[in-house]
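[Automated response] Your request has been received and processed.

Submitted sequence:
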Amino acid sequence: MTKAKRMMQEDIKLIDIVIELLDARVPISSRNPDIDTLANNKFRLVLLNKCDLADEHVTAKWETYFKEKGIMVVTINARNGQGMKTITAKVQEACKEKIERDKKRGIMNRPIRAMIVGIPNVGKSTFINSYAKKACTKVGNKPGVTKGKQWIKINKNVELLDTPGILWPKFEDNTVGEHLAFIGSINDEILQRTELACNLIDFLKMHYPGILQERYQIDESNEAAVNLEEIARNRGCLLKGNELDYEKASIILLDEFRNGKLGRISIEEPA
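Generated structure:
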């Protein structure tokens, strides 16, 4: 992590614009606060990825939020290409001052050099492959797939520098860590899955009532631990001796949330 951050500090001198890829379900928690320092004095573009998994009404609020802060924003789904065609034009719009300066110096048609940054599992490799229209990077559904940096020629107007996904070393707010765990940006193997699943159940019952009842035939008036027990029973999650397997039920719930099987859900809304 420290090595990757140091590498970014060196590489940022070479680029014109930082493209920050966020998860549309958790735009604040999936922003690395170090990027604001690292990308100081660089043009910025925010991409709200996985918009197909997020509540579209909440995503519209986030678009307004970033625009009001003077940050250019595009809502995309890198997996199916939604919003991807507008990105080059947005990059050029964001770098308009730089392009004009180059023209005055007699520098014509020099590609804009962009750096793509994003925390693990936000869909960076999928985005790059979609943007470049070819397989440039490995794609995986778990954090840490991108290991090094590479330059990728997108088209005659844009060259892209890929970087490893970086999480900041310490979460000052436990809620941030929990939100990132919900979407799979923190390795599940180091987490208490049953506790995480119960917290997700509480969130969904408060903000999206009826979703769990419809999907798992549970009684949402019960406590989260009882709801997890109901999910385990209704999905046949059993250990030897017909004991309920709460770990397996937790994995089912988290996977179905992350894959959009529970519907379009946003974890964070603008304040």
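Summary generated for your ticket: The mean pLDDT is 89. The radius of gyration is 21 Å.
If you did not submit this request, please reply to this message.
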